[in-house]
Design a protein that fits this description.
Layout (H helix, E strand, L loop, with lengths): L1 E8 L1 E4 L5 E4 L5 E3 L5 E13 L9 E9 L7 E8 L10 E13 L3 E11 L5 E10 L12 H4 L3
Parallel strand pairs: 4-10
Antiparallel strand pairs: 1-5, 2-3, 5-8, 6-7, 6-9, 9-10
Length: about 150
Amino acid sequence: MKIQWALLAEGAIVDARGALAAVGLAQSVLIAPVLPMGARRAIILLLSGPSNEFVPGRPVKFSFHVVPPSGGALFEHKGSIPMASNNFPELPTGVNISAEAAFTIKEYGRHVINVSVEPSGHSEMNVELEFYVMKPPGESGTAPRNPESTGVA
């Protein structure tokens, strides 16, 4: 079993078909004119592997924490969910796990979200996601964009 992929989004929803959908995918820069500022992020990942490694009902422990540039933990969340059943045992299995967090950002710069997943009977797996909190362009010491150089008027 492995983490096949992990992503950061503004939110996650379940659509009318029951499929998990990401909202605001890959938003890695948050513009913050002033701090502190409230933020919300969703972490979505896919566990994959042979179907015999996924035992329905067994717990999957997960945790994530947001680390600001100065270190420590800005937000922490731990939980456990039961493994879902596989409707097609002859196929490789994939299980989506999603969690959302609302927290207050107090610093500009690189923030890291450390994600840990531990399915029952398996070793812990980790992934790191990042996002940046920046001042609006022109306020952070960077030069404003020149419309002539981009062809945009």
